[in-house]
UniProtKB/TrEMBL annotation, chain A:
Main location: membrane
Catalytic reactions on record: ATP + H2O + polyamine-[polyamine-binding protein]Side 1 = ADP + phosphate + polyamineSide 2 + [polyamine-binding protein]Side 1
Keywords: ATP-binding, Cell membrane, Membrane, Nucleotide-binding, Translocase, Transport
Task performed by this protein: Part of the ABC transporter complex PotABCD involved in spermidine/putrescine import. Responsible for energy coupling to the transport system.
GO annotations of cellular component type: ATP-binding cassette (ABC) transporter complex
Listed EC numbers: 7.6.2.11
Compartments, record wording: Cell inner membrane
Family matches, as InterPro entries: AAA+_ATPase, ABC_SmlMolc_Importer, ABC_transporter-like_ATP-bd, ABC_transporter-like_CS, Mo/tungstate-bd_C_term_dom, P-loop_NTPase, PotA-like, Transp-assoc_OB_typ2
Subunit structure: The complex is composed of two ATP-binding proteins (PotA), two transmembrane proteins (PotB and PotC) and a solute-binding protein (PotD).
GO molecular function list: ABC-type polyamine transporter activity; ATP binding; ATP hydrolysis activity
Residue ranges of domain ABC transporter in the record: 9-240
Family: Belongs to the ABC transporter superfamily. Spermidine/putrescine importer (TC 3.A.1.11.1) family.
Listed name of the protein: Spermidine/putrescine import ATP-binding protein PotA
Amino acid sequence: MTESRGASVRYENVQKSYDGETLVVKNLNLDIPPGEFLTMLGPSGSGKTTCLMMLAGFEPATHGEIFLNDKPINNVPPHKRGIGMVFQNYALFPHMSVAENLAFPLQVRGMGKAEQEEKVTRALEMVELGSFGSRRPAQLSGGQQQRVAVARALVFEPELVLMDEPLGALDKQLREQMQYEIKHIHENIGVSIVYVTHDQTEALTMSDRVAVFNDGIIQQLSEPDQLYENPQNSFVAQFIGENNKLSGTVVAVDGDTCDVKLDDGTMLKAEAVNIGAVGSRTTISLRPERVEFDTHESMDNLIPGEIREMIYLGDHIRVRMKVAGNDEFIVKVRNRGEKRDLRAGQTVEIGWAAGDCKALDPVA
Amino acid sequence: MNMHPQSDPQVLTTRDGTPLKVSLAKALRREKLRSLALIAPLLIFILVTFAAPIADMLLRSVENGIVENTLPKTVNALSGWDVTSSQLPGEPVYKALYEDLKVATAEKTHTRLGSRLNYEASGMSSLFRKTGRRIKRMDEAGPFAEQFIDIDKDWGDLATWRLLKRYSPKYTPGYFLNAADAQLTADGIAMKPENERIYLLLFARTLFLSLTITLCCLLLGYPIAFLLASLPLRSANLLMILVLLPFWTSLLVRTSAWKVLLQQEGVINDFLVWIGVIGDASRLVMINNKTGTIIAMTHILLPFMILPLFSVMKTISPSYVRAAKSLGATDWTAFWRVYFPQTVPGIGAGAILVFILAIGYYITPELVGGTDGIFISNRIAYHISSSLNWGLAAALGVILLGAVLLLFYVYDKIVGIDNVKLG
Ligand SMILES: Nc1ncnc2c1ncn2[C@@H]1O[C@H](COP(=O)(O)OP(=O)(O)O)[C@@H](O)[C@H]1O
Ligand SMILES: [Mg+2]
């Protein structure tokens, strides 16, 4: 209810190796201000869970230091860190009722019976499970178990809550509903939340900031919209949302923009985001919905493309084209109701602005 | 809705009008018969080799046809005689006895009857043997009573006739009374004299030692199972082989190894004397007593505790303990409140397994138990192979079985038998 309930977290040059041969986390530096909802997003095996476990105290950092509220915690055992945690399989104690599960953190803190009961009731009401206190976890549905797990991680009023793919086991509809509920709980209580997921929609929906992980490195740390609008490298551009790739060579750089010669000879103007000097290879990233069929002279890039396939999807139409040698080029056309004369096999002109295509680091 | 207006709307029917339940049962019958045919060989095997012998044993513990079979006329004649009377039975009974014994001697069954009755009162065996030898020389004309008493004055003793009368019914509680250190006397059931009691003590010792062994196995096995379950797979497999290693050596070899270790001139005592913990004169007695039985049997039964514990622990996700710690529990609290309760089904399974095996154990107590470390099963074995008192052995076995079932029942009431998991 107050803004000040959250804790701050800082990773400083943290490295982690399990086997002494490979670094699973390579030099992590991350600053999380109080009350932030930060998501670690990345493919499986990219080191997200490891980062979370080091913060929770279940894995020691091989190198570097982690700070909680500006105090180093490397030598603080997990139970003294006061960090709430929601596990992927919920880890609700099967031999205790829901209420006993919630009372557990209060009991171990030596809280009085009456106070315990009051807090448990309040926590159950928060997740709308008021009448389920006497049930065993196994008697609850997946979504209800999930809520109990969230309530248990919050009931002892920690300043920081960690969640490791907490919605992974739920079906799509329930997952979306829980995303909003967790987001609202976060807004209401103001705790800091570090959330791990490999689902980009989840990350974009819930987070204040997203740290995109790959290969033990944070590829980009920014607000959700920036992640989509301004990817800093090809991995992020590809990982977040749909993306057309075009490979070429930088032929000229002019401030924020650059000219790129594609491999088939086509010249494009693109925003210079992450490129080397003139002559270096680059990959152009272009969102499918930024490509227009209604071209006009003022567009920076105008090139022909051959329609290969049209897929009707209700609110929009996906058009697969062959453009500049790439026949996986996708264009999304919004369904505005007007009759448009597009057919497979046609060659049409398409266009987009230079600012909509980013010249990034080359991918193989 | 109802396609068959002629049928009761409450009863669902198939299209041809037969009730649905009947059709379903018919359809399932074939399935049932087929599965029954599949398990039939096993069922027959178990019935023939397991259930039938046990039933036979149960019967033997009360069966007592031998008196009536050997002395049918005597038993019949005795039916009119009152056990409590102070008068010897009349001449007709002695006559019947003569006729019975003549047949019995010819068939040589009188000695068997003698040994049977000898279980109840010593002297009976020799009485029947002696009488059998002399019976041919007896005068067929009588009077029989005098001739019998002349052969052996025991025939003139009320106790002999009371014994015969008491054991003439087809079924007897005698074996069970005997197994409970009691006997049937003229004035009903009474405990045997103090110095003849043995079985109750043995039962109590068997139960007590089995419980102790179970507890030792649990105390030793729990940490090992925990270690096994938390180690990475490769080292866990290696350790598992070590746990199972004892299974690969003969029971006799293992037990004899304990003899080598534990005896007074053995390795352990030698070592203790050598490092000066105990004096040469006060070597520890660790074998041929209860200690020896407990040590050797704990060792032998340990795997039966570790395996169920391990298989239960392996299924407990480490995230439970982590969750507990993240919620503020110390290592001990996390273990005791979260981990341990989830291993209770494994403890139950292991404890039952070890206890049941221990309570019927025979070879190890025989070898290392001495006199005060032997079990009731050693006594049962003695009666089966040496004294040939199968009825008593059967009664002891039935009591043992009953005790185990009773303990099962108590366990079920306290812990719940469905709260047992082997894996
Ligand atoms: N306990 C462990 N022992 C050895 N290697 C591990 C362990 N946990 C994770 N790893 C390895 O570390 C890498 C990162 O794992 P993890 O942090 O779980 O990734 P993520 O959560 O992003 O999927 C993976 O290659 C994984 O195999
Ligand atoms: Mg993970």
